[in-house]
Amino acid sequence: xxxxxxxxxxxxxxxxxxxxxxxxxxxxxxxxxxxxxxxxxxxxxxxxxxxxxxxxxxxxxxxxx
Length: 65
Known about the structure:
The chain is built from three helices and no strands. By secondary structure, it is mostly helical. It has one domain. Helix 2 runs antiparallel to helix 3. It is flat. 9% of the residues are buried.
């Protein structure tokens, strides 16, 4: 499989995500943090923040229940 240049890493994000059974939101965070400085820049950092906000909201709601 051809690896995009913005994922030029020893361990590919998809492999890390699958091997660790991460959920969708956590997987997105891994994907964007691994590529932000090579591809998406500030937009990827904003996406990371967005997904972290989702996790925080879910965590807060779970502790209320």
